[in-house]
Amino acid sequence: MKPKQAMEYVVQDYNIQLSGKMISRALKASREEVIGDKGAQNGKIRDYLMELHRKNPGSTTRLNVIPQPESLPLFDRLYISSDACKKGLIEGCRPLIGLDGCFLKGYYDGQLLSAVGQDGNNHFFVIAYAVVPNECKDTWKWFLTQLQHDLGDSTERGWNFISDQQKDIFPRAFHRNCVLHIWKNFIEQFKDQQTKQLVWDCARCTTEIVFKAAMEKLKQISVLAWEYLDRFDPATWSKAFFSPGPMVDNITNNMCEVWNAKIVAYRGKPILTMCEDLRCYLMRKMAAHKKKLEKHVGALAPVQQKRLDDFIKPKSHNWKAIWDGDSKRVLFEVHCMPCKHAVVAMSKMGLRPEDFVHKWLTMEVVRATYSHCIKPVNSEEYWVQSNAPNTLPPPIKRAAHRPKMKRRSDPVKKEMNPNKYRKTFQVTCLKCGQLGHYYKTCTNAPQRRREGQRKGLCNL
Question: Region (Disordered): which ranges (predicted)?
Answer without folding.
Answer: 392-416
